[in-house]
Design goal:
about 500 residues; alpha+beta; Methylamine Dehydrogenase, Chain H; Serine Threonine Protein Phosphatase 5, Tetratricopeptide repeat; 4-stranded antiparallel sheet; 10 helices; about 30% helix; about 30% strand; elongated
Length: about 500
């Protein structure tokens, strides 16, 4: 049946199919309507493809319903015909069937041109591109295929749907493709790259139909010239209908999102410049707020570290230069933490989980944790979701850092012991070759004159040691000591 949109009445009826009609498509070229050569093609479950003449010039009397005649008819497929499409220049007709094939026909007499095979299940939809000499097909095998109508070859396969692809539509001057599937999802694809750009989920059941409609809207100009200028703007709208009994209107917001993105980038650049100015002028409170708003965790940590290093607080004569661990060191962040909002405190709690895991930043992190627990009230602190996410990590890494500090402290005891032992060593001995008659006190160390090294011995003298002239004698003798191997002169001991 042919309906008049303006009068909302039936103006023509076409009869001839013996089973349910699955698809009907009108000619698309304007020349066909002006030359009175308009037609439409239908296909259905009877596997028959029919071409009908459409005398639009005879529909002047809405009260009269005329009967249309079929000009050509052909058995097109072995199974039900699901979709029929006409090329933009009305020269070609494509039909898709449950027999997994797409067939191309001449639009004038429905003469066969080619058969496209490649799908593993029935083909639900076939659509011609409005710009290029290609067509796209949707199948129950969860894929879409792009075909050339010049050499009838397969150009690309679109994969990504998790259910049968039921419909497709070219948008954005044929550069992108919309597809709908049995799981209620609508996806937007780019033909050149074959990638899915967006996924829309508003339907609750199968989406059977997609239709694209470019709308031109006219807006008045600024009125500065005589005869106010009017600007033509194109708004891209498409419609989707599904088994959930809903028709949803979608509007293209790509341009708006791009403008918002550019505005956000510009705002970020201005805030980055403000942050640099604040750091250069030592305005740490403003710099901290800007860094938190930008979401730069590393810059926030650097600002806190600079505050701990440069903010001295009250003068303290006992504090040495460069000493961070003074009495007021843990209080330097209180004034900055108290001025933070709830959102900024929540960001700090999330950042702490990453900072405390690094031993290089553990000291600044512990001071910030101390300040947060001291300044922020507990009932306000427990409401932050960042605390619940970071609490286990903060406790675990804090215990690990304290264990590391204990090990370092124990290592300092060994260093202190070595330092005390070094202080017991005798002063450096002068060159023995130049000392001819000088005598020294023999200590419980054996002297190796050739190497001029004082080496500790493993025995102790039992009595006082006498003074020996190194220039005259080379032996060491103990006074009033018992005769044992340790008191024998060195030369005799070697002989033994």
């Amino acid at each position: 049946m042919v309906w008049s949109v303006a009068d909302r009445v039936c103006v023509a009826v076409a009869e001839g199919h013996t089973d349910a009609v699955g698809s009907v498509v009108l000619s698309r070229s304007r020349a066909s309507y002006t030359s009175r050569a308009a037609f439409f093609v239908s296909g259905g479950a009877d596997k028959i493809l029919k071409r009908w003449q459409l005398p639009v010039h005879s529909f002047d009397h809405p009260d009269y319903c005329m009967k249309l005649t079929c000009t050509h008819s052909v058995r097109a497929h072995e199974k039900d015909i699901n979709s029929v499409a006409v090329s933009p220049n009305d020269s070609m007709v494509a039909s898709a069937s449950q027999d997994k094939t797409i067939r191309l026909w001449g639009a004038t007499s429905l003469s066969p041109l080619a058969t496209l095979t490649g799908h593993k299940r029935g083909v639900w939809k076939v659509v011609f591109s409005p710009i290029d000499k290609v067509l796209v097909s949707c199948s129950g095998d969860r894929t879409m295929k792009l075909w050339s109508v010049v050499d009838y070859s397969q150009l690309r396969t679109f994969e990504g749907h998790t259910a049968s692809v039921l419909s497709a539509q070219f948008v954005n001057k044929g550069t992108q493709l919309l597809s709908s599937s049995a799981d209620g999802l609508i996806r937007l694809w780019t033909l050149r790259s074959g990638e899915c750009e967006s996924t829309m989920d508003m339907h609750e059941d199968r989406v059977w139909a997609l239709e694209y409609l470019p709308v031109e809207s006219t807006e008045a100009g600024d009125g500065s010239e005589v005869g106010q200028s009017r600007q033509q703007q194109h708004e891209h709208v498409f419609f989707s209908g599904g088994s959930d009994s809903r028709v949803i209107v979608w509007r293209d917001v790509t341009e708006e999102e791009e403008l918002q993105r550019l505005a956000a980038v510009e705002e970020d650049l201005l805030m980055e410049q403000q942050l640099q100015n604040d750091l250069r002028n030592r305005r740490f409170d403003s710099a901290l707020n800007v860094a938190l708003n930008l979401g730069h965790s590393l810059k926030v940590l650097n600002i806190l570290t600079v505050i701990l290093e440069e903010e001295r607080g009250a003068p303290d004569e006992s504090r040495e230069e460069g000493d961070l661990f003074s009495a007021d060191w843990s209080l330097r962040l209180d004034s900055y933490v108290s001025a933070l909002s709830d959102e900024q405190v929540d960001k700090l709690l999330r950042y702490l989980k990453d900072w405390v895991s690094n031993s290089r930043h553990c000291y600044s992190s512990q001071v910030l944790m101390n300040s947060l627990l001291r300044v922020v009230k507990v009932d306000r602190l427990v409401k932050h979701p960042g605390l619940k996410e970071s609490l286990d990590a903060l406790i675990s890494y804090s215990e690990r850092h304290f264990q590391r500090l204990d090990r370092l402290q124990q290592a300092t005891y060994m260093l202190e012991y070595f330092t005390s032992q070094i202080s017991l060593l005798p002063p450096p001995i002068a060159d023995l070759s130049s000392a001819s008659t000088r005598s020294i006190d023999i200590l419980p160390y054996s002297v190796v004159a050739s190497q001029r090294i004082a080496m500790p011995v493993l025995f102790k003298p039992t009595t006082n040691v006498s003074k020996v002239d190194i220039g005259q004698k080379s032996s060491i003798r103990a006074v009033d000591s018992p005769r044992d191997s340790s008191s024998v002169p060195l030369k005799k001991r070697k002989a033994r």
